[in-house]
Specification:
Helix content: 25-40%
Order of helices and strands: HEEEEEEEEHH
Structural class: alpha+beta
Distance between the termini: 73 Å
Oligomer: single chain
Mean pLDDT: 81
Shape: elongated
């Protein structure tokens, strides 16, 4: 990890040559064309000799990558300590990079549980407050 940090911080341009942790760098030739892009999903057309596709998204293990036809799951890698990298196969492929839906489902369950907890707390506090009866109001 320190070797990768030194490589990234001491170069002239930290984005010129991706530093892949634990893997020797490859310099294959290729062409990449964006088909569509959204915050949680990218589709790219890749034609290459194989290697690592550098994507300007923050690396996080919740990302997943696969060929568009679903025939191959592609390996996600950490580039330059913070960027997302995808190992691509030789040849022409449409690659889908998106957030694993399992993470979204887990986050949704936690959000619903948190909302239910807040509602239950609000209802229990309202029930504990003493109510003034009309007779008590006239005494004031």
């Amino acid at each position: 990890m320190m070797e990768a940090f030194n490589e990234v911080t001491h170069g002239d341009d930290p984005l010129a040559y991706p530093v892949v942790i634990g893997v020797p760098p490859t310099q294959g030739r290729g062409r990449v064309e964006f088909v569509s892009a959204a915050p949680d999903r990218l589709i790219v057309q890749v034609s290459s000799e194989g290697g690592t596709l550098a994507v300007r998204r923050s690396y996080n293990p919740i990302w997943r990558a696969r060929t568009a036809d679903g025939s191959e799951d592609l390996e996600i890698r950490q580039l330059n300590l913070v960027l997302l990298g995808v190992t691509v196969l030789a040849g022409a492929h449409e690659v889908v990079i998106d957030v694993d839906p399992t993470v979204d489902r887990i986050a949704t369950v936690f959000a619903i549980l948190a909302l239910a907890g807040c509602l239950a707390l609000a209802v229990s506090r309202r029930r504990r407050q003493p109510r003034m009866r009309p007779r008590e109001l006239s005494d004031l």
